[in-house]
């Protein structure tokens, strides 16, 4: 996704307008984190951003478009891709960054992306673009490991990366267990063992290599 | 969890009352599957069950307790645990049963358990009991494999089973990709490779062996 492109049908803000816009989007993320999508109101967002409700409605026709814009901004924020020279450290580091991202930085936002709000077609689309973008950015971690001979030829980056994040999201969204560095290291160990055994080679994947 | 025990504070139904109760709980699951928790109304549940709204309110004080009871009933429904004599087939079969369970049988119910409704403490509790129960029931699949020498001594059943289900829930809840037998087989292959490499031995797990 191009972080520079404004959503269709809305004018890209500049100057004072841009500051108001940024404040409203940040307030929306904060509200999402605090009360969740179901309880989010435009009034509370406006109050938090220090603007009048009508200022919000002038730019966003409803709560849904506001939330979609806020999540799109969030998606544009990047995570660094580790490059330590060793695939085991790289995977542990990447998994630890995800854990930190989900727990410290954006817990409520993550909860929103995977809550009832995820049923909105626009938010499901934000989510798909998010992961396609993440996997594309992180792919060099895998291809470099293959080039160094640390992983089998033909290892599919997206398959491997999904395996890496799966145990982390399981604890966050399904079993409701805490996330910590041990969670990340365990996820990295599972994925590395499977990768070395050739489980993520594209031709072994039986059509699982599409990103969505 | 004991499927025989009635929720505290409610009388266990018998006779005609039991039939009405079962019809209402089934209607609640169907409504959850169709419209989701956010849009579920007691009125629609009553209509679907063929009873008057007041009949529902006589047994359940509100929408929340009704949903909790319906999900608890759902949890009591069991999945068979494969026992083919080979751990690879057992894991594939168990993963395929989960895929079928999530996609064909109870897609909407799964969506509810992991949606905004999951923020209700009662539903989060139902979820924790569900997984503790599932892992306990499926543990013999792992211990039998260890006894047969197909997996390393000390393999932790809950750790292994979480790894097995993680890629399936990732596709269901996070990346929004379709679930099929290939999804299940891929999850089984990842888990088997990691298990053989000793990743799920309890002493290697750095405190990840608690169930919640």
Structure description:
With 212 residues, chain A is mainly alpha-helical. The first copy, chain A, folds into two domains: 15-74, Arc Repressor Mutant, subunit A (Orthogonal Bundle), CATH 1.10.10; 78-204, Tetracycline Repressor, domain 2 (Orthogonal Bundle). In chain A, 65% of the residues lie in helices and 0% in strands. Chain A contains nine helices and no strands. In chain A, helix 2 packs across helix 3 (53-59), helix 5 (87-105) runs parallel beside helix 8 and helix 7 (121-147) crosses helix 8. The longest helix of chain A has 27 residues, at 121-147. Chain A starts with 14 loop residues before the first helix and ends in a 16-residue tail after the last helix. Residues 1-14 and 204-212 of chain A have low confidence and may be disordered. Chains A and B meet through helix 7, helix 8 and helix 9 of A and helix 7, helix 8 and helix 9 of B.
């Amino acid at each position: 996704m191009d972080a520079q492109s404004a959503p269709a049908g809305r004018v890209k803000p500049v100057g004072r307008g841009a500051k108001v816009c940024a404040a409203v989007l940040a307030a929306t993320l904060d509200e999402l984190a605090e009360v969740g999508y179901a309880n989010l109101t435009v009034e509370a967002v406006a109050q938090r951003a220090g603007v009048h409700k009508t200022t919000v409605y002038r730019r966003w026709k409803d709560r849904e478009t506001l939330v979609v814009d806020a999540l799109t901004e969030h998606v544009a924020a990047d995570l660094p891709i580790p490059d330590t020279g060793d695939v085991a450290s790289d995977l542990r580091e990447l998994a630890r960054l995800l854990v930190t991202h989900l727990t410290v930085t954006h817990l409520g936002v993550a909860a929103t992306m995977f809550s009832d709000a995820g049923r909105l077609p626009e938010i499901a689309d934000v989510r798909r673009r998010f992961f396609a973008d993440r996997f594309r950015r992180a792919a060099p971690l895998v291809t470099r490991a293959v080039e160094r001979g640390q992983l089998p030829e033909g290892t599919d980056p997206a398959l491997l990366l999904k395996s890496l994040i799966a145990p982390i999201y399981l604890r966050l969204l399904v079993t409701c267990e805490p996330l910590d560095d041990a969670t990340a290291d365990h996820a990295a160990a599972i994925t590395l063992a499977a990768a070395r055994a050739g489980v993520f080679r594209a031709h072994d994947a039986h059509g699982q290599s599409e990103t969505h």
